[in-house]
Write the structure tokens for this entry.
Amino acid sequence: MRTLLYFLAIGSVVGLAYWAYEENFETQQALKRLRAVQAQIGDTREALAVQRAEWAYLNRPDRLSDLVEMNFKGLGLLPLTPGHFGALDQVAYPPNPSLEGELAETIEVSAGTGGRP
Amino acid sequence: MTRTPLRPLARILHARETGGNPDLIERENIRRRHEVMRDEWRVMAEQRLLLAAFCCLVVFGFVGVRMWAIASTPVAEPVAAVSDARIDATRADIVDRNGRVFATNLVTHSLYSQPHLMTDPEGSADALAALFPDMDAARLRGWFTGDRKFIWLKRRISPEQMQAVHDIGDPGLQFGPREMRLYPNGALAAHILGGTGFGREGVQSAELLGVAGVEKAMNARLSDPATAGTPLALSIDLTIQAVIEDVLGSGMRLMNAKGAAAVLMHAHTGEIRAMASLPDFDPNTRPQPLVEGEAGDSPLFNRAVQGVYELGSSFKIFTAAQALELGLANPNTMIDTTSPMRWGRHRIGDFKNYGPELSLTDVIVKSSNVGTARLALEIGGKRQREFLDALGFLAPTPVEIIEAPGARPLWPESWADIHTMTISYGHGISTSPLHLAAGYASLLNGGTKVTPTLLRQGAPVAGPRLVSEETSAAAREMLHQVVERGTASFGRIPGYAIGGKTGTADKPRAAGGGYYEDKVVATFASVFPTDDPEYILIVTLDEPVETSGTEPRRTAGWTAVPVSAEITRRIVPLLGLRPSVEYLGDPEITLARN
């Protein structure tokens, strides 16, 4: 009985030691991964900042207006002026689809009746 | 220890003689010996137990102390210590009101050398001098072979240059990361942004410090690590700023002006939507300030904020509005405009004689100095001064750029009657175009004071009331008449109700003593739309001259007004202001059908 207790105690000590080591090891690994991920985040942020700066640089008004001038033949872009505003009543209504359908049906019917002897 | 024999001979013999059992004696002695041994063992066991308890106490005590220490010390996450320094931008970005980037940071590298680590100091010196034209090989050689252990070579180098230095391959040439402030739009809004320089420098990093403009005025906010992740949003609209700078630049060249400034302000919030000053500079490579000559000739000079000029007749509307507000006149009251008007030894004249009297509206429309001066005398110097003070003309503007507090308006301390009269038409008081914008906004937005700001505001803040709604509306109508039939007729834009007032002031001689004959500052202050005021636009041209006619024309109506009208025509669609309905029949519109 006593021997059994000894073995159990020793076994549990060994088990706990293994568990503690395992936890410690995993923590170390997690920290290492974290460092790597954070370095990656840093790099990505830096890259993003560069991209944003580049985007802003490429979209600077000077360059855009130069591009508009260079591509005037193809695009014909002009500065926005008050003349570019339109009124709502200058926009044509879309053709009424339900009316179109009725019209088509009418033709069909009349064609059908016309065909009868 | 004396060992007691188990069978002592004397007692055994005595026992045999008396017929006793000698074994009893032996057993008795064994028992006694065992008792002694037991006592010894017990003491030893007790000591061992004490030792074990002490060991346990030490171990548990250690654990306890550790637990207490961990629990009672502030949280220092091990992850925080390993976090990469590059993650945190050290200076917040600056963006426009729609989030477009005005200023951001880029990581570049600096170059330094540690001569004691160098393998080939002379060769490296020659190679570096070949790479960077501004470096001197002989001087570098002197440095690299001298006693110094550490030498800064370049503050900022590009990735290509860094690779080229790498290729030299000397271990004594080293790089430190450097954060660099980048203004991707170049010279756009340069005077607002200002610029940055390096403060304290270390090998691994350097402090970015604002040296002018918003960068310096808001330095604490921009460099605060707690807010470094949140960009600072200005009230400026980048697109409109670009359009205004573009048109203003063309106008300045067309009118042969040496400088120009424009301010576009929202009439209700005081937000500055655009503020331009020409000539300008590139904040990425900020030029050195001038060491001689006039500060106003430097491109660093912000004419819109720092340039305090006599803005001339554009001030007349304040006199007229105050007369309306005080009940001294209504827009149709006839004012004596007999020219010239004499006051002591002074003589006030008009551009041309407008006859004996004009209605108040016509005094503004025709821009009569005499009529305004007479009104001002009725108002009185004290009330005039209080009114201009309330409008913010007598103190520096509170906008968030470092140059603003230094731009103090100039006005006569004594404020005698002659000053009251000249100030009523904008002479004798020097203010910046920004002051004028804020004054126009406060007067014309319905009569509540606005405070100019460069930061995006959440909601409009209603300031204290300066004039009544009716006075404000009447002043707008007068300004509208100026554009419709007065000195600013070039300012008309079909489809929009524009109001404005011209101002042409002679430039005072730099050396003192009177005014130049042929140098003026031409200003046009406008408000649109006049029926529902949204924006105030101030355009100022420095020394313009329009030469298309037979003789040179310098008045604002011929110079500042056409420039301002073109700016307005270009920005109204961008501001989302639609032309009035009658105008919409314009044939430019492509009719769409599907």
